[in-house]
Amino acid sequence: MGVPCVRVRREDGEATRKRLAEADLVDDGYDITVEEGWLYVPVTDPTHVPDEYAVVEFDAPVREGQTMPADILGFEPSYERIGALVIIDEDDPQRAREVAEAIVTSDLPVEGVLNRASKIKGEQRVRDWVVLAGDTTEVVHREYGCAFALDLAEVYFSPRLATERHRVVEQVDAGEQAFDMFAGVGPFVVPFAKRGATCVGTDINETAIEYLRANAERNGVADRVTGICGDVREVAADYEGWADRIVMNLPHSADEFLETAVLLAGEDCVLHYYDIQSDDALFGPGERAIRAAAEPDYEVSVEARRAVRSYAPGEQNVVLDVRLRR
Question: From 3, 46, 74, 202, which residue has the greatest number of CB atoms within 10 Å?
């Protein structure tokens, strides 16, 4: 049976394996294989593999001695891993328990299994969980060389956005001043700071800001990261005209904060604006909202339009990279 693998030339194999491992994408249930000069690296989630890599189906051998959940269940369960926890999404409690037991019994390196018990809800964008194995919802997630401690029951965090975050991080230069308006536990500001930027992150979730500060310490960038608990609209005046780069990752309602983003923007600022839109109008509504808020004080130019991932039938999570020049 084919499994998703990144295929690269053998001479590029170690650098590729290392990069995929930093993003926690290497599927260690299968062997990395060389065939006819190509190296095949099995991956856990092909949708998060950086765009420059080719993902193919390849008959990678199961690692010798490895027992996988499918070997126990007789079918391939759907799950995702975040650190040492495994997340499943099963409506049937009995099936959920069976899947969790198989995951724990298998040779996957896991310490717990959580089942989603609600959709994301409330102003702080958290969800309910059922702990099926282990005793915690707290985990350390590793992503492109950074480590983030977080509690899934207390903060919003999506490992599925790892590739998108890395795309933005690679644009950051040392010496920049970057502001994340909805910063969570720091998945944007911490790697920004590792590239030499001075960063401010705000969030209304006090627990998230506590984790952000701890994660800045954990990654050795506390001297370049300021975490502020509160509504960004209430603290923006202290940073008027300050930002060279702004992240607005609050789909569905980011447009309500555009006037604040314009207040934060410096003379030449890049805005990363995330939105949820229908397939037939992915980028127009966001672009019009940004222009309405920024013009004529700023010249507005859209540098990138990207569909990040499918959100729901007929809807996409999208991002606009927009440069504002005064």
Answer: 202
Q: What is the pTM of this model?
A: 0.83
Residue with tokens 């401010």: 200
**For the segment 11-43, what is each residue's pLDDT rounded down to a tens digit?**
888 889 988 988 888 988 888 999 888 999 999
7 touches 17 (CB < 8 A):
no
Sheet with 129-133, edge to edge strand ranges = 80-82, 85-88, 112-116, 129-133
Quote the tokens at residue 80: 């995702």
- CA 255 – CA 314 distance, rounded (Å): 20
CA 12 → CA 6, 9, 47, 186, distances in Å? 11, 5, 21, 31
Contact 163, 50 (CB under 8 A): yes
The answer for residues whose C-beta is within 8 angstroms of residue 84's C-beta and 6 or more apart is 109, 110, 111, 112, 139, 140
With bands split at pLDDT 50, 70 and 90, how would you rate the model's confidence at 63?
A: confident
119-157 b/e (C-beta count within 10 Å ≥ 16 → b): eeeeebbbeebbbbbbeebebebbbbebebbbbbbbbbb
